[in-house]
């Protein structure tokens, strides 16, 4: 009597605790995302493919990083986006959402990808996602659409037939499902694709099993087992477990136990790192703790409780080491029930207490997972809320508009005419505003074009001026009968002119090129006046001379003035210094200093004929700088001053901004 009472008490506890656990664990399990959301920065510009590769790296481990990389890939494409690149970004975003169970978002992004570019892989992924969400009609539509597109890759066609069969099967259309599976299997056999032969034989077996034709199902399962054994050990174990489930459903427990024990032996032969099958979701992976638990259930179904105990104990131990609380919970509860049936009430109670503790741990973990899932979806919900708000505002605006239209319909004919008059006036004002805007824009464009023409004209004036001065130098050598110097000068001059003419069509050239021209020009002038001056070009190493842009032949007129109007008239030997200083990352300063006679004395020394002539190089340069500053927001700033207080020497300071 006492034994019966204890059994009744334990039974009541089982029922009440199980009911409470079902209520507590009703929430859907979602992936937990790591808190670290900081993305690695890189000084260089990443390519679109590199960003997508980075997104794939984090696809399974960190959804936020993965999505951020995809978003950056889309931002990088800009307006001139390639349709294929845009489609690949949306497709990967769909894969990320699909992996993490956000199926609505996955479908939306797959659809966006197909709008950009039709792709069989995307159609396949979209069809499979619709299968998961239970929209079998849409799944079937996408699989058929993929088959209509055709593919040179047999594997893709087989996958499409397989998905189409799954859709027909889910809709209850046995004959259409069987036909789709048969077509896929024929292609797999024809192209010797063993993995898909195993998959399709297994699916056909599932179909016959669902329609209560166990003999045909078992024959096909035998074939799929044989084919799966020729693949990876993981695939073989998964197929054995599937067939074992079939035997369990048909109460063929001996065959079920035999297959599951074979699975355990196969798993033991694998290293821990290879026990999960690549490309198979975690919830579809086979674990040794689950297999042990199912073997125990098969023994219990045969009323062989004693033989079930070792497998339940092994299942509990493995589940605990693998942190598999679901299997640990179920196996612990089942073991407690077995102990109770065998009359070992102390063990039954102890095991049941362990079960209660596991349930509590599982419950807390579920709460943590739910909280993590809520944090994960908060941003998506916020965006969706904003979209919903905008939609509501639009609907409200439309309602107000409809109300206004209704009220207008009740207005007398006179008011209608007044309204038409007002509308006409508004329309006229809008037309005038548009005309003014287009006129203003055309005027600005014309001004810009005029400035470009003016710059080109000024550049063409600079070149003859420069050539004229250089030819004067050659003439000077010829006058002195210095044929060797004249030839050398002409050779250097031709090299300089070649560079000048190459750059004559450019508004700006790299500072590096201007320095090369400057050094060559200084060498030419120094060869003519070697006893009049020495020169030095000092460039700050911090300046990135390749990235700074400068108008061509900007510095030459100032150096020419320093030599011809300052140093040439100096009695003793002078110096000319060109210094380039890095002010900051966006500005440099160029100083041209000479200790010549100075501007005031130079003017005094000019002859009457020289005073009548305006310096062509300097005036042209001033006009060029004025136009360039107008076009490019004060890019060049120039100041000229005396070097010393006694008004001797000259210093020219140019400040140049780097292009943004």
Q: Can you characterise this structure?
A:
The chain has 660 residues and is α+β, with helices and mostly antiparallel strands. It has a domain of 215 residues: Heat Shock Protein 90, CATH 3.30.565.10. It is built from 24 helices and seven strands. The strands form two sheets. Strands 2-4-5-7-6 form a five-stranded mixed β-sheet. β6 and β7 form a beta hairpin. The longest helix is centred in the last third of the chain and has 67 residues. The radius of gyration is 43 Å and the shape is elongated. The N and C termini lie far apart (94 Å). The N terminus is likely disordered.
Instruction: State the separation between the terminal residues, measured CA to CA.
Output: 94 Å
Give the name of the CATH superfamily of the domain at 443-657: Histidine kinase-like ATPase, C-terminal domain
Uncertain runs are 1-44, 278-284, 381-392
What is the radius of gyration computed over CA atoms, rounded to a whole number of angstroms? 43 Å
Total of helices: 24
Mean pLDDT: 78
Quickly name the level 1 CATH class of the domain at 443-657: Alpha Beta
- Annotation, overall tally of beta strands: 7
* Assigned CATH architecture of the domain at 443-657: 2-Layer Sandwich
As laid out across the biggest beta sheet, the strand order is 2-4-5-7-6
**How does the helix and strand content classify structurally?**
alpha+beta
- Global shape: elongated
Instruction: Describe the largest sheet.
Output: 5 strands, mixed
């Amino acid at each position: 009597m006492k034994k019966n009472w204890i059994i009744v008490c334990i039974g009541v506890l089982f029922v009440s605790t199980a009911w409470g656990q079902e209520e507590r664990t009703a929430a859907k399990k979602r992936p937990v995302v790591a808190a670290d959301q900081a993305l690695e920065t890189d000084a260089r510009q990443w390519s679109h493919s590199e960003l997508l590769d980075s997104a794939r790296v984090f696809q399974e481990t960190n959804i936020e990083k993965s999505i951020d990389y995809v978003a950056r890939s889309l931002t990088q494409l800009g307006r001139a986006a390639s349709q294929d690149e845009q489609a690949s970004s949306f497709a990967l975003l769909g894969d990320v959402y699909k992996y993490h169970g956000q199926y609505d978002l996955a479908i939306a992004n797959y659809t966006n990808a197909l709008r950009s570019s039709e792709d069989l892989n995307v159609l396949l992924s979209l069809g499979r996602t619709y299968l998961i969400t239970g929209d079998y009609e849409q799944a079937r539509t996408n699989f058929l659409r993929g088959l209509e597109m055709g593919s040179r890759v047999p594997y893709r066609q087989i996958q499409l037939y397989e998905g189409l069969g799954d859709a027909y099967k889910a809709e209850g259309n046995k004959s259409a499902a069987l036909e789709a599976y048969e077509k896929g299997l024929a292609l797999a056999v024809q192209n010797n694709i063993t993995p898909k032969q195993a998959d399709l034989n297994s699916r056909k077996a599932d179909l016959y099993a669902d329609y209560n034709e166990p003999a045909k199902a078992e024959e096909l399962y035998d074939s799929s087992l044989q084919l799966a054994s020729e693949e990876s050990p993981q695939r073989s174990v998964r197929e054995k477990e599937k067939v074992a489930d079939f035997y369990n459903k048909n109460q063929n427990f001996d065959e079920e136990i035999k297959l599951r024990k074979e699975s355990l032996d196969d798993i033991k032969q694998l290293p821990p790192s290879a026990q999960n099958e690549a490309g198979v979701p975690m919830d579809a992976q086979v674990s040794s703790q689950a297999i042990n638990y199912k073997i125990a259930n098969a023994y219990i179904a045969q009323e062989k409780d004693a033989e079930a105990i070792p497998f339940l104990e092994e299942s509990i131990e493995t589940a605990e080491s693998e942190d598999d609380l679901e299997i640990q919970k179920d196996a612990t509860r089942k073991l407690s029930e077995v102990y109770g049936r065998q009359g070992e009430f102390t063990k039954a109670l102890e095991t049941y207490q362990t079960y209660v503790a596991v349930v509590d741990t599982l419950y807390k973990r579920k709460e943590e997972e739910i909280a993590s899932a809520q944090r994960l979806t908060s941003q998506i919900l916020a965006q969706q809320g904003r979209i919903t708000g905008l939609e509501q505002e639009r609907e409200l605006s439309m309602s107000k508009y409809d109300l206004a239209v209704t009220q207008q319909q009740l207005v007398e004919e006179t008011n209608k005419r007044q309204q038409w008059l007002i509308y006409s006036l508004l329309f006229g004002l809008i037309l005038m505003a548009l005309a003014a805007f287009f006129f203003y824009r055309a005027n600005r464009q014309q001004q810009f074009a005029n400035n470009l023409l003016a710059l080109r004209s000024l550049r063409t004036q600079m070149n003859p001026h420069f050539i004229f001065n250089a030819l004067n130098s050659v003439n000077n050598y010829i006058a002195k009968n210095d044929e060797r110097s004249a030839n050398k000068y002409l050779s250097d001059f031709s090299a300089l002119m070649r560079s000048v003419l190459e750059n004559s069509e450019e508004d700006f050239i790299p500072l590096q090129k201007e320095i090369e021209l400057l050094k060559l020009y200084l060498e030419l002038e120094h060869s003519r006046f070697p006893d009049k001056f020495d020169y030095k070009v000092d460039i700050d190493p911090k300046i990135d001379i390749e990235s700074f842009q400068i108008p061509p032949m900007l510095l030459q007129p100032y150096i020419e003035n320093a030599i011809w109007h300052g140093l040439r008239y100096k009695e003793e030997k002078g110096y000319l210094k060109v210094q380039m200083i890095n002010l900051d990352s966006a500005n440099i300063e160029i100083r041209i200093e000479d200790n010549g006679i100075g501007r005031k004395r130079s003017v005094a020394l000019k002859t009457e004929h020289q005073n009548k002539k305006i310096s062509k190089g300097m005036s042209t340069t001033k006009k060029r700088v004025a136009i360039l500053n107008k076009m490019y927001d004060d890019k060049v700033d120039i100041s000229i001053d005396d070097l010393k207080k006694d008004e001797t020497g000259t210093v020219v300071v140019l400040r140049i901004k780097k292009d943004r």
